[in-house]
Amino acid sequence: MRLLQVNVHPLKSGAVRTLDAAMVHPRGLEDDRSWMLVGPDGRLVSAREAHGLFSIVADTPATDRAVPGALRLRAPGHPDLVVGQPVGAPVPVRLFSLDLQATPAGPEADGWLRSVLGTDVRLVWCHDPARRRLQPGYSSPEDHTAFADAFPVTVASLASLRRLNDWIVERALETGEEPPAPLPIERFRANLVVDGDEPFAEDHWQELTVGDVGFRVAKPVSRCVMTTIDTETLTTAKEPIRTLARHRLVGGKTMFALHLLPLSTGWLRVGDEVSVR
């Protein structure tokens, strides 16, 4: 099995940044989901609420060495914005049910994002990922991450996606619908994309080694409505949740891909061999 994609998302819900290589830290891939948007109440604003986030391209020096600051933001029809390293006092923010601390990026970044998205948001940076504790029962006390939904790293299988797309076509034909175009793997926003095993063989994985870096499987990823948003057109549809609910429903949740915890640090590179047990 081989590693086919390495994906980093510097801004939570922003455009996927596909790289040739990335450094793995205990908190996950370098700069993955280090920044996020919050509303006036300090709660997360994601692409669920603001679909336009998918069109914002965020880069850091980890995803583009030419970035002159801590973060560069780009959006169609707007000038680029370079954001310096935030240095102010942390403020309370809310990530789902988690109360966290984050450092505000400042009014210039907030104004730029409001002009792009047309909604009142603030940009914040995770200054200390080590402070965040992860889900008990699936992690150790030392495990941590920045603003990822649950765990530091996710992995998805192209073989499983091909099977899912086949199921989607079958369902469309059963209901007399026009079969949709195959879903791209980017719809699932996985950090690592692998291929070379049987569909949904990952249900039985306990550990992975990618190149020289080890990972432990924490739990499957439960998918939400955000996977139904087309990241190009920003429109929503029934898939893949409708079909996942038919074939991949576990405990009332639709499952696709895996959450991982790093067991070691090091570089991942596209083409690395992937072994599992």
From TrEMBL:
<feature type="domain" description="MOSC">
    <location>
        <begin position="128"/>
        <end position="277"/>
    </location>
</feature>
<protein>
    <submittedName>
        <fullName>MOSC domain-containing protein</fullName>
    </submittedName>
</protein>
<dbReference type="Pfam" id="PF03476">
    <property type="entry name" value="MOSC_N"/>
</dbReference>
<dbReference type="InterPro" id="IPR005303">
    <property type="entry name" value="MOCOS_middle"/>
</dbReference>
<dbReference type="InterPro" id="IPR011037">
    <property type="entry name" value="Pyrv_Knase-like_insert_dom_sf"/>
</dbReference>
<dbReference type="InterPro" id="IPR005302">
    <property type="entry name" value="MoCF_Sase_C"/>
</dbReference>
<dbReference type="Pfam" id="PF03473">
    <property type="entry name" value="MOSC"/>
</dbReference>
